[in-house]
Amino acid sequence: MRKTARFRNDHRTAIAMNLEPNTPEPAHESIDTRCVRPDRVTEPTTRPLVPGIEWSVVYEFRDLDHVDAVYGGTEAGYVYARDGHPGAARLGAQIAALEAAEAAMATSSGMAAEAALFLGLLRQGDHITLGKGLYGRTQVLVAQDLARFGVDHSIFDPCDPDTWTDGVTLATKLCFVETITNPLVRVPDLPRLAEFCQSRGVALAVDNTFAPLIARPIAMGAAYVTHSVTKMIAGHSDATIGALAGSVEAIAAIRPAVSSFGMTANPFECALALRGMATLPLRFRKACENAQVLAEFLELHSQVDRVHYPGLKSHVDYRIASQILEGGFGTIMTIDLGSREAANRFIRRLQGRIPFAPSLGDVMTTLSHPVTTSHRGLTEAQRLALGITPGLVRLSIGIEDAADLRADFEMALGV
Ligand SMILES: Cc1ncc(COP(=O)(O)O)c(C=O)c1O
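A: This is the predicted complex of the input protein with pyridoxal-5'-phosphate.
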């Protein structure tokens, strides 16, 4: 067998790795050993244009001084992928830039970002206020799972300042809302809510999943932003991933909980999210434009009882939305078709064109039915209190040609 130079004898690689260059090559090395110790090829002088996906669970140290330096923070380095890896760091930096935040970390899902915030920040006896109209699973996480850890909550209407004090006590540590609520796309006055929270010593956290680029809650006074990166940011329904942004100090304080509960994003999903993020501005702006055109069309359609879209002058929060959203009103709208039967007919007629797939944020337009999917975990009474009726269909508008989408809807609404 031809013997290639082992890394221990290779000067350039040895220097790159800070190894002893003259470490002697082993005299005998069977193929069994060679299989598990492949050659370290010479470090190239060029870099890949696209960063690689670092699969490694663990990182190698030179010696004990090196391990001390990395743990002590005097030398940069990774140790164990559950604590951090280059892909998660790259995505964190991109999310921080997107949100004008000091720092951000990538988590294994949008729910993991929320769980990281709650588990990293709250303790038994604390209280959290929740904006009405949150994603269904967020409500379940707080009402059922956090309750088991002794964290209490109360619900207020983020669009009604008269309710903001509801339930707030000295134990209230966090207030959690969405930039655009789900599924009725209400838009709270975030700067005013942030001011209120600051006056009460409560940290405001905003799930900005529906409004990347068009809203920057941290600049409006929020302490934390969460994202289901799974949605618009990754953008292709092929990665389940999330992110939490905040100050350097806040993110550093939450990081240990992310490691303990095993919530770090994996390298492959980070790479997919980074790839998606490169086209986020193009995709999202186009989808916002499509959404505006379609909302205006659907609002005038005789078979649609009501269109909920903050870009319509008829929307209850149009004024606030115009003030706080920049460059579009988002890609989510909800239409009321009056009954479950009408919603079902609409969904069936669109099969093969617009999928009934209970998520959002894909390049392709998809639709969902809140009663049977995202808000299924709530009781009927809870749903009705939120205005979620069986005739509601939520549309996540994509980047197709708007005229084609309009034709699809026209066909599906035809009598
Ligand atoms: C607004 C919002 N926040 C959070 C989540 C949870 O995100 P993930 O599915 O990535 O855990 C979702 C999921 O649909 C969502 O719509």
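The chain has three domains: 7-72, 86-274, 280-413. The chain has a mean pLDDT of 93.
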